[in-house]
Every structure is written in C-alpha cells, then in structure tokens.
Amino acid sequence: MGGDSQFFSYGDDSEESSLLGQDFSVRSPASPIFSGNSAGVDCESGLGVEGSEMVGRPIPAKLKRSRNIYKEVLRSYDEVQGQAVALELAKRKILGYTPGSWTEAVGGTFLCDYKVPITTTILLIGTKGSGKSSLVNKISAVFEPERFTPQRAQVSFNPSIGAGTRFAHEYKIPRYAKSFCVYDTRSLSYKEFENEKMLKRWMTNGVRHGEPVIRAYDDVDGLKIRMKRSKAENEYAPTVARPINFVVFVVNALSVLESMEGKDETKKRYTQVVSKAFNSPYLSFKDDKPVVVVTHGDLLSVSERVRVRVHLGDLLGIHPKNQIFDIPESKDSATELAILDMLHYCLDHADNNLPFGGFLSCLCPLLLLLIALLVACYLAWVFW
What we know:
The chain is α/β, with parallel strands linked by helices. The chain has a single domain (78-351), classed as Rossmann fold, CATH 3.40.50. The protein is 41% helix and 9% strand. The protein has 11 helices and 8 strands. It has helices at residues 17-20, 61-79, 84-95, 132-143, 192-205, 220-233, 253-261, 265-278, 302-316, 333-351, 359-382, and strands at residues 120-126, 169-173, 180-184, 207-208, 241-242, 246-252, 291-295, 324-326. The strands form 2 sheets. A 6-stranded mixed sheet has the order 2-3-1-6-7-8, with helices on both faces. Strands 4-5 form a two-stranded antiparallel sheet. A hairpin with a 6-residue loop joins strand 2 and strand 3. The termini are far apart. The model is unreliable at 5-54 and 232-237 (pLDDT under 50).
C-alpha cells in the first residue's frame, strides 16, 4: 500500500477559466501497462517481453529496471496483509513521538543545537479533488474511533463545484495533542506563478490556521463576509504562524491514469502541474523531496495502481515504493499501516532536517538553569 514500514491576492485569471471546472476524477479505460510501449510488455503484469519482437535480443537495461521496480511495488501490496502486530507497534511509536525526539546526533551535534518546534507541522499540497481533506480524516481515524468521532475536515462531494478548501486548517494528530499537526490547504492553481508565490509564502513565513488564499476569479464579496465573521468569532484567539517541517504531496490516481493514457491536452496537463509544483525548490528540505500520497486507488485494479506509482516515480524522480504511498478509501489494516508508514517517514525526515540553532540554543537553557540555581541559593540565604 505505501512505502517501507519504518492569505494572498493574485492577478487576473481569465486564461485559467477553462481549466478550473475540470474534474479529473473520472476513470478512463485501461491501457497497456507502460503507456505508449505495448510491444514486449504483458498487459496484465507489465513484466513479460516474450512474444514480442524482442525475443532473442538482450533486454534493454531501462526495461529491466522498470520491470524490477514494477515487481517490487506489486509485491508491496501483499506484504502489508495480516500485519496486526506491526500496525499496533507503528501506532504506538507515532503516539510516542515528540518534536526532535527522532533527530540523529550526527557530526558532533546535540538536540539543543537545533531549533526544535513546539509542534511538528506537515503541509498537505495537491490539486483540486486530489483528496487532501479526505486524507486528514483518514489520518484522524487511525488514532480515534471513527464510529464515535465526526469527520474533522469537510470533504467536497463534487470537486467540479466550488473551490473546495480556501482557508488553511490545522489539525492536531491526535486531536488535542501537540506533538504534530497536518495542515489542509487550498488546491494548487493551474498557473505556475500562483503556485510558486503561494508555496514560497508558506514555506518561508509559515502557515496560519484560518489564513485564506484569494485568487482573481473568487467570489470576493462572499469571502469577505466569511472572513469578517471568522475574525469576530476568533478576535480573542489569534493564531501563530507554524513553520513547515515537511510536505505531503497528494495526487489523484484516476487523474494520473487519465493523464498517462489520454490524448486530451487538458487532461495531460494534470501531471505537468503536479511535476512542476512538486519540484519547486521551496518544498524540499536539503536533499529531501516531499512524500507523495496517491488517493482513489481503490477504484483501479492493482495493476493500474502499480503503473500509476511507477509512472509518478519516473516523473518526479523518487522511488515508487519507498516514497510514494498508496492510501485508498478502503478502511482496513493495510490502509492504516500505509498511513502510519507515511507519517513515520514525514516525522523522521522532519526531525533530521531541523534548522541549526547555533551555540545560543544550547547556552540559553544552561543560563536559565544557572539563574534558577542562583535565585534558589539567594532565597535560601535570606530565609536561613
């Protein structure tokens, strides 16, 4: 299912109007396992070359590599079955996490050398209808009995109507905890400069709960009413800007498959937008790129799900098994384990990419301790 266990105003948007109403959630017909290369590939497994014109010839290294990766990803769907013990251990480890606790002391450094956040913040990024809000609810359901707990994030029933999430929402995981949180955000635009401006602001200044993202085509009057009401309700509860510690890029498996197979340039643009935004330098932490969560995979066959992950791996330059997590709508232990694996990856890499705080970050706690001791000694001498 997943990897290894372990507010702004923009310019004119007239050119985008033809794309905004596009709903990339309609499944397209199946096609050969490697799009545009049906020769020499078994359409069921994507593994074979027998029966093609390549028989008797050396198999190209690129095809060998693709075949091996396909098999590796395919096997991962069997490996997660029946791992109840692993599920409980993974959940316990996530619940025991505190910011900075998984930081590796390398290069002679100590935890006090880094700027450790009060709450580790994971930012969800994705296109319209990719399933970011649904992912929030799935993550929450792993730690809270969904039967007795209402869904936290509002999910759009029809992605082609409305703009979806417009205000940034912070969700503590678990609810009321403070170790880490996920931020649901407004969907990516189909204009690159808008995405770059939005991502730059979030990644450099942090993100605030309730912060809106306004674009030229929005119903500004309606948004102003909602913002005034929100301001009145939260007048005495100002929010702080959370520095982003890691990013999760959410994509719709159906849209990826359509983009792979379709000849319509509008549909093909889906993966172009995903690739451009994913490779924004603002989203990477040193050498670490975001993790990718693939949603709606339960509407595809296993073979198609594997194809989507392998294609995304090639497109984005990340390993399709280790850094791309298949999290469908299914409610089973395999899906829960994929969610926990994804969270573990995010928290682990967030801790190991903390910004360096310098000498004063270590010195200040020692000074405070020394001052406290001096005060205690002074009080003892006065009252002796």
